[in-house]
Amino acid sequence: MTEKKIGRPKATIDQDQFEAMCKIQCTQAVICAVLDVDEGTLLTWCKATYKKSFSEIFGQKRQGGRSSLRRMQWRNAEDGNVSMQIFLGKNYLGQRDKPEDLDSDVNKDASKKVIYTVAE
């Protein structure tokens, strides 16, 4: 006589799919919904598979997504995408749309010198 197993069958989690969802920064709730497991199962699986907590693994795996996104943005800028060049310029080089205030005292003095020099 064979023994009957009691309880639910063990949930199987696709590790590649889990890591791909972390990479695109899906929330824990979304990951659980897609993998059709509850949060407790996911947390237990992370501990058993990676020997780390979900938060630690999620933090590591999402860095891969960030670097991929940065690489694609950079490639778009190099390929001539002006919007991406502006975005990267603002975020990495501190560039901005608004020029310096032309009415500042420093600019008034500088413009007076230019006017006097041209007039002479």
Helix-strand layout with pairing:
Elements (H helix, E strand, L loop, with lengths): L14 H9 L4 H8 L3 H12 L3 H25 L3 H12 L11 H15 L1
Task: Pick out its properties.
120 residues; 2 domains; mainly alpha; single chain; 6 helices
Poorly predicted regions are none
Structural domain count: 2
Average pLDDT score: 86
- Written as H for each helix and E for each strand, in order along the chain, the element string is HHHHHH
Q: Biggest β-sheet: count, sense, barrel?
A: none
Helix content: 55-70%
Residue fraction in strands: under 5%
> What is the number of beta strands?
0
Report the principal-axis shape: elongated
Broad structural category? mainly alpha
Rg (C-alpha, Å): 28 Å
- Alpha carbon gap, first and last residue: 112 Å
Model description:
With 120 residues, the protein is mainly alpha-helical. The chain folds into 2 domains: 10-69, no CATH class; 80-120, no CATH class. Helices cover 68% and strands 0% of the residues. The chain has helices at 15-23, 28-35, 39-50, 54-78, 82-93, 105-119. α1 crosses α4 and α4 crosses α5. The protein is elongated, with a radius of gyration of 28 Å.
Short description:
The chain has 120 residues and is mainly alpha-helical.
